[in-house]
Design a protein that fits this description.
Elements lengths: L2 E4 L2 E4 L1 E4 L13 H13 L4 E3 L8 H10 L8 E6 L10 H12 L4 E9 L4 H5 L5 H10 L3 E8 L3 H9 L9 E4 L4 H4 L2 H10 L4 E4 L13 H9 L4 E6 L4 H13 L5 H15 L20 H13 L3 H8 L26 H14 L3 H16 L2
Parallel strand pairs: 3-4, 3-10, 4-5, 5-6, 6-7, 7-8, 8-9, 9-10
Antiparallel strand pairs: 1-2
The chain binds iron/sulfur cluster (2 copies).
Length: 379
Amino acid sequence: MKYSNFKELRLSLLGFGLMRLPVTPDGEIDSEVTFRMVDYAIEHGINYFDTAYPYHGGLSEVVAGEALRRHPRENWYIANKYPGHQIASEYNPEVIFEDQLRKCGVEWFDFYLMHNIHETCIDIYLDPKWGILEYFLKQKEMGRIRHLGFSAHAELETLKRFLDSPYGEHMEFCQIQLNFLDWSLQRAREKVELLNSRDIPIWVMEPLRGGKLLSIATPEEAFRWVAGIPGVTMILSGMSNEQQMVENIEIFNRITPLSQEECDRLYALAEQMKDSVPCTACNYCTPACPMGLDIPTLIQARNDFAVETTFTPLMRIESLPKEGHPSNCIGCGACSQMCPQGIDIPEVISELNSQLVKAPSWKEICRQREIAARKMREG
Ligand code: SF4
Ligand code: SF4
């Protein structure tokens, strides 16, 4: 196993993401297989285990705790997250945090993250009335949190806003979606540059983009690409069966970064996969829009749809106010006249509207994810 240094710790470069655990035919977490996977992981050098409040309807924390507590506490680090991204009427960090410690059966979390900083929820995290930062700094002082960080699916500008807020100076690491497709598609390159410029180590989620990249690359190529990015300290994989775990550990025993030539080949394949509308986000068009639409963001959502029909594009649209949704476009074409790229913007927005009409509901997305996870488990 390859390791990376983080402060006083030596972390396995591969971390076990506990969001897609094996399940029984009736949909419960299969504790027996999970225990075996945790045992195998620890025996083969993995020492980082990542759970969160909503994973498996709150049961990932329980099973993770049970599985890990069968091993000496010094052999594993557990990460958990505060669910401020789940829009609720009340946010009481103390109630949630105490519940998380109890469910995991631990006295402290080695790593604790503000979960999923995003356009839809950053104001909750920043609202002093909830006292979120203050509460978790206090827990850190008391030794109940060893390292504090955050995860983000946010746009670059929101990421900057969070880092410039009072949270910034306290964030010791940041978890982002990083893979060779999102390097350009989700401006991951600029996010990496931003985090590097602030000396914030990077934790990687979705290195295979939920398996989507496996149509054009092997897992080893995708992992090797991520391992070569400056600042990457932890690469999480949501392993769902024992075979995946064995294969991933073998890869991380010999992992080396790709050569520039190998990276270029993956970027070329990613370009073909994107089928992108070539918007450069110059914003020349937006002042011309009588409806005040954020046209580059809508085009980005359309480009997201070219590679994924669910989570990312829907979340992007959801982050916009209702009056900014693409259904408000009146097709006047004033925007296209301003576009140096010659993009037929009303046509692109109309295409986006059709994709949104066809897109599944959140409930359906959860069901599809569960089916996909089951297929992966069944090999
Ligand atoms: S076509 Fe749609 S996006 Fe373009 S200016 Fe008109 S309303 Fe705005
Ligand atoms: S003018 Fe064209 S390239 Fe610039 S943001 Fe608008 S659509 Fe994109």
